[in-house]
Specification:
single chain, 397 residues, alpha+beta, 6-stranded antiparallel β-sheet, 12 helices, 16 strands, Acid ceramidase, Acid_ceramidase-like, CBAH/NAAA_C, signal, Acid_ceramidase_N
């Protein structure tokens, strides 16, 4: 197996494509904290996110059939673009051939029901199984995001996030945008996962992607996941899985399992902090009571830190981008500083869905990679999501 694995590794080099021609000296397009951006309108608002229902009582292969049939063209366009990036670097076509021939051999190694759902998506879309698998793998290694949980003076919790995806995946010099990010926006969906006709959990996700990055279990918890950059990162975990080491959990499979099965905030926190992972991560978790919120910083094998709300110590919000809270972010990617500045300026007295949306609309928290913004309120049993766009001038990430 090692021979084709070495070739598959090179596929990830597509993250370097599209960057030629991109100006290296990019101004830090940072602006003052935005206000009165909610309800969403104007040039940063691309549209509402549509709702779909997935019936968990159906066989896994059948759950996504209707949705995939409706979004088949958009999903095909994205997969073709990813293949185009790979072919531009490896004109022989061997990399795409490896994905089509070899990855499907590993579908049985995925935990149930994820492998079966991916097979159903491939059947419904007519796309090669290996390419649908690759689409799901990408999210383990290419997300850069901002997540926050805040508590207002009445004890109400707000959980929100910007999902930024597509870093280094095809920079379009003409339109100043990431090609993959642009193709992802039409695939953004809100999903109501139901059993026996009742909601089990809700999520903002991408059509064709079976893991979860953003979600809410009504009355119990809210959850988002951000990528954590590390030398012992997602690439290594994915390659270990390809080579036959399957003792780690896919991050997005774990978050979906927690959303579906956890019965309390404490149970979710235990699962997210102790389960062995394929990739390091930040799990941003909210509960249904005062001070039930935390950022769990994970390596692949252990929990490094749990940062919790502590009103007595003045910690009324926790906010995570893609850097350990005890380390400074990269100067060219400091979304944390502007985000926290806006939160502090807002104050706990004035925090709300609207003011958090304002913060998430402030450059560079909003950037060229931002595909969507999701706002969740456990007390209001509400999840709402919006497609986003960052007009020029705007940071690439």
């Amino acid at each position: 197996m090692e021979g084709w694995v070495g070739s598959l590794v090179t596929l990830f080099c597509i993250l370097l494509s599209g960057m030629s021609g991109w100006a290296q000296d990019v101004p830090p397009f940072t602006e003052d904290c935005r206000s009165e951006m909610y309800p969403p309108t104007g040039p940063t608002f691309r549209g509402n996110v549509s709702w779909y229902t997935v019936n968990l009582d159906q066989a896994p292969q059948d759950r996504w059939q209707k949705l995939i049939t409706e979004k088949k063209t958009e999903l095909t366009d994205l997969i073709q673009a990813i293949k185009g990036l790979a072919t531009a670097i490896f004109p022989s076509g061997k990399i795409v051939d490896l994905v089509d021939r070899k990855l499907p051999l590993l579908i049985g190694t995925l935990p149930s029901p994820f492998g079966e759902e991916i097979e159903g998506i491939a059947d419904a879309s007519g796309l090669p199984l290996g390419e649908v698998m690759l689409f799901n793998i990408f999210y383990e290694v290419f997300t850069v995001c901002t997540s926050v949980v805040a508590e207002d003076k009445s004890g109400k919790l707000f959980h929100a996030r910007n999902l930024d995806f597509g870093l280094f995946l095809g920079w379009d010099v003409k339109n100043n945008s990431w090609m993959v990010t642009e193709l992802l926006r039409p695939l953004v969906i809100n999903v109501d996962f139901q059993k026996n006709g009742k909601t089990v959990f809700m999520s903002t996700s991408f059509t064709g992607y079976v893991g979860m990055l953003t979600g809410m279990k009504p009355g119990i918890l809210t959850l988002t996941m951000n990528e954590r950059f590390s030398l012992d990162g997602g690439y290594i975990g994915v390659l270990e899985w390809i080579l036959g080491k399957h003792d780690g959990s896919w991050m997005s499979f774990l978050t979906r399992s927690v959303l579906e099965n956890a019965t309390s905030y404490d149970e979710a926190k235990t699962l997210l902090s102790k389960t062995k992972l394929l990739a390091p991560a930040y799990f941003i978790l909210g509960g249904n009571k005062s001070e039930e919120a935390c950022v769990i910083t994970r390596s692949r094998s252990s929990c490094l830190d749990i940062w919790e709300l502590d009103l007595k110590q003045g910690t009324w919000y926790v906010l995570e981008t893609n850097y350990d809270r005890w380390k400074a972010p990269l100067p060219i990617d400091n979304r944390r500083g502007p985000a926290m500045k806006c939160m502090d300026r807002t104050t706990q007295q004035n925090i709300s869905t609207a003011t958090i949306y304002d913060m998430l609309s402030t450059k560079p928290v909003l950037n060229k990679l931002t595909a969507y913004t999701t706002l969740m309120s456990i007390s209001d049993n509400k999840l709402e999501a919006y497609l986003r766009i960052c007009p020029d001038p705007c940071m690439p990430w």
